[in-house]
Fold this protein.
Amino acid sequence: MTDAVTRSDGGTAGDVFGAADLPRIIAEWERLSQEEPWHIDPHRYGIDALHETIRAVLDIHVWAGTDAFAAERLVRTAAAHGEQRRMQGASDDALLREYHALRTALWRFLHHSGPRNSATMGALVRVDLAIGIATTVALRGFHRGELPAGTSWESDLRQQVAAVSRHLADQLQAGGRS
């Protein structure tokens, strides 16, 4: 059972991350990473794919691994993010630093958003799990061109979605949910 603590924005502690928090989380990530090579020209590369990946990570927090669509969205947005970074000429090392900056931004957000309790810890577990999955899938997207000949990218993504859905359900039902 979660602690029912009211947040300053009217949500409850069980709603540690919400849609209203997304602009603040993205702003913190951008502040942390402003001099890194993944800052892009949206006119040349389109909207930064990490923004959708952050939304997908927060969806995993909200749905606690119970929504197959949320798992599919996480896989597809993270893979697209990795592909976008490769197209931009970033290294896979830069991709790893980017996810580290995202993890740091989320921790800082939680640090400044109120008291820590069992709901906060449950949120951290869910978000950390989702970021770990997103990092792995983004690297697959980054290295998509290195798949063995004859491998279908779409088939590979479907396999990733199924594996991620199972993993999230198993891990979050085993204790990641407060």
